[in-house]
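Dear support,

I submitted the protein below through the web form. The confirmation email said the job was done, but the results page showed an empty box. After a refresh the structure appeared. I'm attaching both so you can tell me whether what I see now is the final result or a partial one.
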Amino acid sequence: DETLLIRVDRFDSGRADVREWLLALSGRTCALEAVREVADPLTLPGSPSSAGSLELEALAARPLVQALDLVDAAAPRLDLVVQLRPEATPEARAELAREMRGLCDEGGELGLRVRAAGHPLVAAALDRESARVERVFAPLLIGLSIIGVAAFLRSGLLAFLAVLPAILASAGARAGLRLCGVDGDLILVSVGPIAFVVILASTLHLVSVFRMRYGAGASQLQAAHAARREKFATAMLAALTTAVGFGVFLLSDLRSVSQLGLTVAITVLIVVPLAFLGLTPPLAGIPLRRPRLRPAMRTRWRRLAEQSVRRRGWVVPLAVAVLIAGSYAAVGLPMETNALEYFPRGHTVREDFASIESEGGALSSAEVLVRGASSWDLDRAAFARIGSRLEAVAGLRGVFGPEAVLDEVRESAGIAAFALNRQALERAGRLDGDGEWARWTVRFPTVDDEHCRSILAAVTAAAAAAVDDAAPTGGEFLIAGSLPAVLEMQRHLVGTLSTSLVGTLIATTLLFLLAVRSVRELGIAVLVNLIPVAGVFLAARILGFALDGATVMVAAVVLGLAVDNTFHILHAARHRRDARARLRAFGRVADAAVISSLALALGFMTLALSGFAPTARFGILCSLGALCALASDLIVLPALWVRPRRMRS
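What the results page shows now:
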């Protein structure tokens, strides 16, 4: 049922060049690989057009033209409905979008206003924006992350070594999808950035410990091996947690979501151990100047932890407030179902779509298929009864069913032959080849999720009543189409968000048991990692963001970043559990946590420069999530983990 509308208006029907261009428009469109058929009022059998002009008044009186609202003689206006092939490839759809843009430009040169709009063009524009993320913003994210890491490590060579495994993981994840024949889309385009940030968070801890040991006087070989021994087990534990969290996406009914989860999980499990093993030789062998460590920085992080413990009366209530507010915000986040909102105002696709609908057009539709107790006998009265039921539904702007096709055949041919009627109905897609299912297309404006669902519910009720009227001895009906499928996909996206969070939380809790020694510490670790997730939901609510194919992944990304730093802090105090050892752990780990979090926040913020809403939202929320995870680990964790009484003693 994928169609788009070509609307031509503001033209002089008496101009020969205009008439010639309009008559050729249908044939040029049909020649495109993605197009199955074009409903063109100028090419209907017996269309009244003369050599000097187009007789729009006569065309507007045709039953089929009226049912599809193809002609307005007063404007004047002429519409063509283009039906796409279901098997059309993304490349063929992209070619269609380019050709439509070219037709609009050609019409403008002739003094016409030509607009092409429809959900297939919106989908093609989404594909272009997804490709742009890969070509422009993903490399920009990587570039700024390298700059940020180099600034914090004060070594371009160390920064390159830290980022190299993440770059290879990002490129490898996308290459693996392409080798498997998986095309990119709005969801899968985030595979590269997600793989990059997860791997970078792990390798930075290794490089940071190497830098600390080397700066303290150890040889490069000793520092490299010491860093690997100290961080390998913790990094693998964090990687396993992240992989399980993304692996939960396999439970999603959406293919793109499950493919993303599987790809990231496999990438993390393969690259993290290889990165720790592969980085040891270059760290031990490349010529490096011995870094000048600043003990004041480590003391500063330890003092920050001490201040958090002393002010736990403020820190803990604030953390609980963020958790409660974030939970409330997550429940109230709306779902973005209108893809037009993804594009900035002024975008051609959005403007043409909105302008046609503002003129009374309806570019969203659903299909109603009805089967009677026996095969249809081409009784117009039965078809008309069903059509009248559907036309009575409030909010619809048009119903196209078999009755309009039969009227058109009888008017143009002057007969009511069974064979001719049957052929016309099948060609128009109003009757299937077996003559069992009749089909009506209901059209309505593109509106929000709630309104679409209410219209479809009313259409469903009308179809049920129509079946009782037309086939009282028994019948059935189906409500189908691209829009109902999109609404169902949105429901699954929300389910994916909750499922991934619950699954990741369960996996995180089980794996934290390997790093903690008491139920109290387990509860603290889980709580600390839920705070940045709640903070992201709260920020989304404050900023007015809606959930879409990209933002549903933010919670899993943020949780993966937060878990990594928490594991390293807990592991740094694994041998001693007194207050001094715990406070010292922040001094040992905080440098790497701060470097990775700030570098990733800077990299993610580059995505906010995109004019494409899902990309910008994803970048802003991930950037805020990285900072919130850092604050939770450096401020909330010590306030809950270190007891003030023991610290004073």
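Response: this is the final, complete result; the empty box was a page-load delay. The radius of gyration is 31 Å.
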